[in-house]
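Bench notes, bay 3.
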Amino acid sequence: MIVMTLEAVPPSLRGELSRWLIEVQPGVYVGNTTALVRDLLWDKVVQYARTGRCTQLYRASNEQGFAIRLHGDPRRTLVNLDGFQLVAVRNARHAELQGEYDPPEDDDKL
């Protein structure tokens, strides 16, 4: 089973995706496809999303039971923590804290 969400993408891409999956709410698609079709759909979405945002969740044989793919939203990134995929959301506070925890780039300062 796969779940895909699309935001701010061209209507033609949404129509193409509805050929393979069911749109249960605007921009939310659910279906059961093979791994090959799932990967091809993801490639098509990434190729035609332009400035839109896309997410794909699908069944995987790992601790969580699923895997996540993200595209187009620079505020959200995937973080692998001991085999678990987590979504990190960057906000203004993240930018402040990042400067405090980043190691110095120049090794001579150590």
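Next record in the batch:
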Amino acid sequence: MLWQHLQPQTIELGWDFYGPVLLFVLLVALAVPVWAAIGAAASLMLVWSGALPLSLVGEKLFSGIDAFALTAVPLFILTGDALVRTGLSRKFLDVAEALTQFAKGGFGSATVLVCGMFAAISGSDAAGAAAVGRMTIDRLVESGYPRPYACALVAAGACTGILIPPSIAYIIIGLVLGISASTLFLAAIIPGLAILVSILATNIIMNRLYGWEGGGNIGLSDYFSRLWGALKSGWYAFIVPAIIFYGIFSGRLTPTEAGATAVVVTIAIGFILGTMKLSDFPAMFVSSAKVNGVIIPIIAFSIPLAEALAIIGVPQGFVAVATGISDEPWVLIMMMILVLIAAGCVMETTPNIVILAPILKPLADNIGMNEIQFCIMMITALGVGFITPPLGLNLFVVSGLTGESILKIAARAVPFVLFMLAVTLLIAYVPAISTTLLPEIYK
């Protein structure tokens, strides 16, 4: 039962925990790369606690990333980069704009939709924010939106990069907790779409209140004529997401195989259209390698850190502290959500997942929360953190892209945060949202 009573535990943490944590905070504050800060903290914790011989750390670094499922991560990142370089991402925008032309605030809604389309292929929020931002922010301003709001809209829409399957975040949390990525992809469909709808609804309401963008006065025949034109000129762009979704959800392809197929098909379409040449490959590979060069080392160094945390009793300690505050499950769920949003504000998804998932899952288990629901709640809450003022990662991405003040963007992001938080709470308290599409064995 989800609401079963909890029994507090007594676990005391010493300097073998607090020392490495302080070292990690200090290194991050000094702008040391996150993977290096995690590695230093993990090494110090291992030495002080004796949790694992330091001589075995190298072996752990290799074994932690020696997983077939992780091969999907660079493949999805490469697919997203190829989409941009072949111009297929602009075809998504054309179709999204044609779909929303009937509505007042149509281009704002189209921006959110293309964020979702891009998310369904690349699986990365920062990449989505940069790619979609370059295509849409100037046009949003031309349509009447204030630039800070246009930036906030793209930042919010890009959060779907880790929420709509296939998502790199679900691959990683599945690896950490031993859950099939395909199962998590299936469970994330409804929650991911719910977040997308909440962002759309926020934009429609804000546009109604302030009247930024006109439009919507179009006849039915003109609407379908333009939509047909957009689909006719860009239908081939949808071959890529069709392959990914059909392959994964039919069980014919693993996420890794779907990612590999998507890369090949995207590049092939680019060559057929003449939008990609062999000379584009070096820059494309370097760009994707830079992103992978951030993600993979973080995973590698986080594995021994997570093991050390488990051995010295940090998960049990967190359960003890949490249940000492309250034994009401709804309160404990709220505490987890607040921790995750705060973590999402200050750190990338990957280290948050690898470090926090093993710490928070025992608490979720103790209150009887379905492990699939826990994963969906965790990733969704981290996604909300990406645009939570004043430190949300996506806010910094679009600020760096446009030069707009981070504080101005953050102020405009508040309505999106509130609507997304409402959906997160529904996911946390209503298990059916995450488990409806799953086989009975997972419910």
